[in-house]
């Protein structure tokens, strides 16, 4: 059951990339790369069990970058006729002729191009109708409104079915493309009692339509999470152990991505400068990157420069094993390209073996953080200060919801003071982790 299969676009898009590369060669450029993607999909949103929007989308464009003796020019076109493609190539070349030379510009090295291109099981087309997406969105809302008398408002549900095709080629002779699919469902609940209103949500996402969690479960979880937040209060300013829920733990590790990205390193705008092979986390803690996991949401055989991805330790027994480098940042730093143009691939955090609920009990007295707000993270210094909400725990038991507080620390200290990572991982993003327990953090409250 999604939109018509997008894989029929693969051959024509490869042909378009070939036309661009062949024409670039005739212009005498020192290198060229062409990327093209097309997306199509269907989204349905409902509110209070009534259809609010139905959206079909189909779009895409070809982008080309040319290099001429260290000078770089880029252009794009959504018209894939041969004449339009050649015009875009010429435009990129004209730009390259007027830009300043940068000795670090250029394609990734030919020896790094991906040669092993396995089927990663990313594409599962289904013909999902608007009626079907409407059905599951309303099922989620119905379940949401049937959980707790204090949750009688749905702030909407959204069901989506999308597929895409991507092709990349360059003048090293690399030319490859693949298709992928993604299906998702989310539901937002609003609750109210004498102390005010709260809202929360839940969602599911999968490569296969049939692998999404049941809509009734998503609705019930959204309502249960919302109801649990009603009656939130401040706590006195203090210092306590903090347990980040899996969703928030993912964001906490996202700051590590920014701090060890090549761009941050060569700009000297990271608190982890010169940190490779130094202890950043406890010695039991590791992060493994697994780009070739079949069917995972962040799998890829090559990056956006055609460089082959590979399994690697990002953190090895607490020590930072590598920076995340593109061809440009690697040259700038005099290091080896790690194939991270375009992002990261399925980071899996090691676990200390407990479930999230067991970590709540082990924490004793502390704070569970389920939401953070604001932009108070300085990746240059590592200073961390964000608004937060969650639950106060005493003797391993959740006593009441907490809101309008601020949690603060420094990412270096926070990373080194991680006590445990739960084994029940959230697999809905490129960082796969369970809840993360911190030894202690400063908490500003009443």
Mean of residue pLDDT values: 96
Count of domains = 2
Strand content bin: 35-45%
The number of helical segments is: 9
CA-based shape: globular
Biggest sheet strand line-up: 3-2-1-4-5-6
Instruction: Tell me the CATH superfamily of the largest domain.
Output: PmbA/TldD superfamily
The CATH level-2 architecture of the largest domain is identified as: 2-Layer Sandwich
Sheet/helix structural class: alpha+beta
CATH class of the largest domain: Alpha Beta
Q: Give the tally of β-strands.
A: 17
End-to-end Cα distance:
53 Å
Radius of gyration: 24 Å
Unreliable segments (pLDDT under 50, ≥5 consecutive)? none
Order of helices and strands: HEEEHHEEEHEHHEEEHEHEEEHEEE
**Major sheet details:** 6 strands, antiparallel
CATH topology of the largest domain: PmbA/TldD fold
The helix fraction, in percent, is 10-25%
Q: What does this protein look like?
A:
The protein has 446 residues and is an alpha+beta fold. The protein folds into 2 domains: 7-228, PmbA/TldD superfamily (PmbA/TldD fold); 232-251 and 351-444, no CATH class. It contains 9 helices and 17 strands. It has helices at 10-26, 82-98, 130-144, 215-229, 246-260, 262-266, 327-333, 356-363, 411-416, and strands at residues 31-47, 50-68, 71-77, 153-170, 175-193, 196-206, 238-244, 287-289, 312-316, 319-320, 347-349, 366-373, 383-394, 397-410, 418-421, 431-432, 436-444. It has a 6-stranded antiparallel β-sheet. Strands 7-12-13-14-17 form a 5-stranded mixed barrel. β9 (312-316) and β10 (319-320) form a beta hairpin. α1 crosses α2 (82-98). The N and C termini lie far apart (53 Å). The model has no long low-confidence stretch (mean pLDDT 96).
